[in-house]
């Protein structure tokens, strides 16, 4: 078999790292100009470059150079790879974010150049999650090139292999042997000789990347002159200027005997899972907000004709995708860069919030909320509410998720009574508000059920109370104990740790094998910002303690104990809550962190034997060894195993604990102990540099987040953890209304999916404007058939989902046209 060495001339460009984006912007233009110069100077030179964002910058700021690039792309000498908006971190963005990188990146390339990337290209990202093959295939790419983890971090049977994800998707994948470029010509000859020897040893062609990278630059004149000299040597036959497209095309034609690997490509830079808490929390929040903005805007367009804000939402997505760049999302850029990150997220948040507000109010204004006897609006009864004659004020509550949600609703007004749309009185609880306005510092807490993609009107009464039978075994708090009909929780009054969680559903089973929610402080002086060369963080320095406990709420719907504990100059406040009849423990955290070169983890030993740890990854999940290594995860992680006291001679029963959070991405599980990484405090962009008195440390000050503990019987698939995670991240939305006529009912459902395993993640107009897009995922790894119904489109259909399969449905506007399955780019999948 031919053993060519394909030389890939490229320019790895970090738009942000040790510099801000403005400098990256300038460097991209200069690098592209240099690449065009090389193309003019050397007729055999081929240039490869990814990242749609860079091309758009050049289009906007240097149109004459952009025209020259278009010509070279048409010739095939400038090769577009990596059909994503940027080279993102490949662990931390959500599954739907990866879909958007394909949607906006590939459609940009197709619209401007008439081509799409066929090779995925993330040569500098710090690890690659196990669902990447499906995401690449759905994004129109059938091959992938990466570099990290290197051979010293992960042993692979071969550098060229078929990579397979849980759903069965495969892409041909190549791991670079060492570097995506070179920073000087000396050493390049040795590198090429080494790579050629690897090709000969493997029996098939290899790729070798060259060109100055990171701060741009690309292939130099010296690079090309050296290559031409080497090509004349008989011992260097078979080296040629090429591209990843050509390499993979030839490899697939040759069909070498290479292994199939079903695994994630990890671990590198483990500190990046938790560096810079603010940007990570903002990313998690804005990813969900953007999807809510799209869903609600789509429903408002279909139900009321409100124009869909396509241009604004696309601009917001571009901001979010840019912040996914691996040196941003990984938290390893300079401090000044994160000021820009905050601005980009801020613009996206603002756009999303405006879209959501417009959509909700357009719908709510059309609901019939008129009451008998109302002749006109006035505010004689209350300065805030429009209530008249004890008729109540309408509060419209919306659910952006694709299943009915029964959840907490905090109404920003102290009320005497609340009913649902049918007029049935609801149990209420007065809770502390965030305001302190004379005596007006109380809100009203209720629980309500809201239909999927729908809403319900609740009626709030300022003075009118209702006789409601108080629940038996109502939730209560006393001292350090929280208890309802499902769980009992004991908190140690001295340490503040959760001493025990007793699950009453399973005969009083203990959920924890020891103290839980233990705040452990670890030493990370030996770590740079990235965590280079490390596999775990387990050097314990101490624990928060000297706790103070205070009962904040005492039922009947919610009971809360505030636990405040201390370490050094840092203060940790955890508000531990239990809802009536709930099987979950909700915790709101406020941390004032003042430590340097230290890490904080919360530890939860789960009372199981033979533990198994499963983590959410983008659009999927993965089981990992319980060896204490630091690993990335998304919204949830689960530790399950055999019940320690299972009856002999019987199949051991399974029990477990899910941990859900709304802001964190780093975890470790050692044995049966699950730890969530809360905060790190390395130096900004410290790659083992000189640590003097002028360095600045990350994450100093106050941050807030929430987590949920959800014990369950059976496997993690039986626990409902995926839906619970989405519910934590997508709280119900509300609009205070007044009395008015309308043609919409007081309760409405927008979608119905018969299978609990299938989640509709995205609903939006098709990019081509002739229909609608509904994207769903099978979330639990079980093949299932389901019926889907979208009432706003008057459409109903059935579909079968494979394990972890993502399906994108194109729903034409014309009812006589059939619903089709398309890929992330909203096109029919292309042939291999």
From TrEMBL:
<dbReference type="Pfam" id="PF09261">
    <property type="entry name" value="Alpha-mann_mid"/>
</dbReference>
<keyword id="KW-0326">Glycosidase</keyword>
<dbReference type="GO" id="GO:0030246">
    <property type="term" value="F:carbohydrate binding"/>
</dbReference>
<keyword id="KW-0479">Metal-binding</keyword>
<feature type="domain" description="Glycoside hydrolase family 38 central">
    <location>
        <begin position="268"/>
        <end position="345"/>
    </location>
</feature>
<dbReference type="InterPro" id="IPR011682">
    <property type="entry name" value="Glyco_hydro_38_C"/>
</dbReference>
<dbReference type="InterPro" id="IPR011330">
    <property type="entry name" value="Glyco_hydro/deAcase_b/a-brl"/>
</dbReference>
<dbReference type="GO" id="GO:0006013">
    <property type="term" value="P:mannose metabolic process"/>
</dbReference>
<dbReference type="GO" id="GO:0004559">
    <property type="term" value="F:alpha-mannosidase activity"/>
</dbReference>
<dbReference type="Pfam" id="PF07748">
    <property type="entry name" value="Glyco_hydro_38C"/>
</dbReference>
<dbReference type="InterPro" id="IPR027291">
    <property type="entry name" value="Glyco_hydro_38_N_sf"/>
</dbReference>
<dbReference type="GO" id="GO:0046872">
    <property type="term" value="F:metal ion binding"/>
</dbReference>
<dbReference type="InterPro" id="IPR000602">
    <property type="entry name" value="Glyco_hydro_38_N"/>
</dbReference>
<protein>
    <submittedName>
        <fullName>Alpha-mannosidase</fullName>
    </submittedName>
</protein>
<keyword id="KW-0378">Hydrolase</keyword>
<dbReference type="GO" id="GO:0009313">
    <property type="term" value="P:oligosaccharide catabolic process"/>
</dbReference>
<dbReference type="InterPro" id="IPR028995">
    <property type="entry name" value="Glyco_hydro_57/38_cen_sf"/>
</dbReference>
<dbReference type="InterPro" id="IPR015341">
    <property type="entry name" value="Glyco_hydro_38_cen"/>
</dbReference>
<dbReference type="InterPro" id="IPR011013">
    <property type="entry name" value="Gal_mutarotase_sf_dom"/>
</dbReference>
<dbReference type="Pfam" id="PF01074">
    <property type="entry name" value="Glyco_hydro_38N"/>
</dbReference>
<dbReference type="InterPro" id="IPR037094">
    <property type="entry name" value="Glyco_hydro_38_cen_sf"/>
</dbReference>
<comment type="similarity">
    <text>Belongs to the glycosyl hydrolase 38 family.</text>
</comment>
């Amino acid at each position: 078999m031919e053993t060519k060495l394909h030389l890939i001339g490229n320019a790895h460009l970090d738009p942000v790292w040790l510099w801000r984006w403005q400098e990256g912007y300038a460097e991209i233009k200069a690098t592209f100009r240099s690449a065009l110069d090389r193309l003019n100077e050397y007729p055999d030179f081929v240039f490869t470059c990814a990242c749609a964002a860079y091309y758009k910058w050049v289009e906007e700021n240097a149109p004459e150079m952009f025209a020259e690039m278009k010509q070279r792309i048409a010739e095939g000498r400038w090769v577009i790879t990596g059909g994503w908006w940027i080279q993102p971190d490949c662990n931390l963005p959500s599954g739907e974010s990866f879909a958007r990188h394909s949607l906006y990146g590939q459609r940009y390339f197709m619209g401007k150049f008439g081509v799409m990337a066929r090779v995925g290209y993330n040569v500098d990202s710090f690890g690659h999650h196990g669902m990447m093959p499906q995401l690449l295939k759905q994004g129109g790419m059938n091959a992938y090139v990466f570099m990290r983890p290197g051979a010293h971090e992960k042993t692979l049977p071969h550098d060229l292999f078929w990579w397979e994800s849980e759903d069965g998707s495969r892409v041909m994948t190549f791991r670079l042997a060492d570097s995506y470029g070179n920073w000087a010509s000396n050493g390049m000859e040795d590198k090429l000789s080494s790579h050629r020897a690897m090709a000969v040893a493997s029996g098939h062609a290899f790729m070798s990347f060259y060109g100055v990278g990171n701060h741009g630059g690309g292939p130099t004149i010296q690079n090309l002159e050296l290559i031409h000299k080497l090509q004349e040597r008989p011992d260097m036959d078979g080296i040629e200027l090429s591209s990843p497209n050509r390499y993979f095309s030839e490899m697939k034609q040759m069909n070498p005997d290479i292994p199939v690997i079903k695994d994630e490509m990890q671990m590198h830079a483990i500190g990046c899972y938790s560096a810079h808490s603010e940007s990570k929390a903002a990313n998690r929040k804005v990813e969900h907000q953007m999807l809510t903005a799209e869903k609600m805007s789509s429903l408002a367009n279909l139900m009321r004709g409100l124009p869909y804000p396509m241009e604004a939402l696309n601009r917001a997505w571009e901001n979010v995708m840019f912040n996914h760049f691996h040196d941003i999302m990984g938290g390893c850029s300079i401090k000044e860069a994160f000021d820009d990150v905050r601005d980009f997220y801020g613009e996206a948040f603002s756009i999303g919030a405006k879209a959501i507000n417009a959509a909700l109010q357009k719908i709510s204004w059309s609901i019939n909320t008129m009451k008998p006897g109302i002749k006109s609006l006035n505010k004689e009864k209350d300065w805030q509410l429009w209530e008249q004659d004890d008729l109540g004020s309408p509060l419209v509550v919306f659910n952006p998720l694709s299943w009915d949600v029964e959840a907490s609703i905090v109404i920003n007004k102290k009320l005497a009574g609340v009913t649902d749309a049918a007029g049935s009185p609801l149990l209420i609880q007065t809770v502390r508000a965030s305001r302190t306005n004379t005596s007006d510092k109380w809100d009203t807490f209720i629980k309500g059920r809201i239909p999927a993609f729908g809403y319900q009107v609740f009626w709030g009464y300022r003075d009118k109370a209702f006789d409601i039978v108080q629940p038996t075994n109502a939730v209560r708090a006393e001292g350090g104990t929280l208890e309802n009909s499902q769980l009992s929780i004991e908190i140690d009054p001295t340490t503040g740790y959760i001493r025990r969680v007793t699950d009453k559903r399973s005969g009083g089973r203990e959920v924890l094998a020891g103290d839980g929610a233990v705040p452990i402080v670890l030493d990370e002086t030996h770590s740079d910002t990235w965590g280079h060369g490390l596999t775990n963080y387990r050097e314990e320095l101490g624990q928060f303690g000297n706790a103070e406990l205070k009962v904040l709420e005492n039922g009947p719907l919610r009971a809360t104990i505030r636990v405040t504990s201390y370490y050094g100059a840092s203060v940790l406040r955890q508000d531990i809550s239990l809802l009536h009849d709930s099987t979950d423990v909700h915790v709101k955290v406020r941390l004032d962190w003042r430590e340097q070169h230290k890490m904080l983890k919360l530890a939860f030993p789960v009372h199981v034997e033979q533990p198994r740890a499963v983590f959410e990854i983008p659009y999927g999940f993965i089981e990992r060894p319980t060896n204490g290594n630091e690993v990335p995860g998304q919204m949830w992680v689960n530790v399950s195993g055999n019940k320690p006291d299972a009856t002999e001679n019987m199949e051991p029963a399974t029990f477990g604990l899910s941990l859900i959070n709304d802001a964190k991405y780093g975890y470790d599980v050692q044995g049966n102990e699950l730890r969530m990484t809360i905060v790190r405090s390395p130096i900004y962009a410290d790659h083992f540099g000189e640590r003097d008195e002028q360095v600045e440390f990350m994450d100093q000050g106050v941050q807030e987040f929430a987590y949920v503990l959800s014990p369950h019987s059976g496997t993690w698939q039986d626990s409902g953890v995926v839906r619970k995670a989405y519910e934590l991240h997508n709280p119900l939305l509300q609009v205070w209304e007044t009395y008015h006529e309308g043609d919409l009912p007081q309760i409405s459902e927008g979608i119905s999916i018969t299978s609990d395993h299938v989640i509709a993640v995205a609903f939006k107009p098709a990019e081509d404007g002739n229909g609608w897009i509904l994207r769903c995922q099978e979330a639990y790894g079980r093949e299932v058939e389901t019926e889907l119904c979208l009432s706003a489109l008057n459409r109903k259909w059935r579909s079968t989902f494979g394990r972890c399969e993502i399906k994108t449905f194109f729903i034409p506007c014309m009812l006589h046209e059939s619903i089709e399955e398309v890929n992330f780019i909203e096109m029919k999948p292309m042939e291999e």
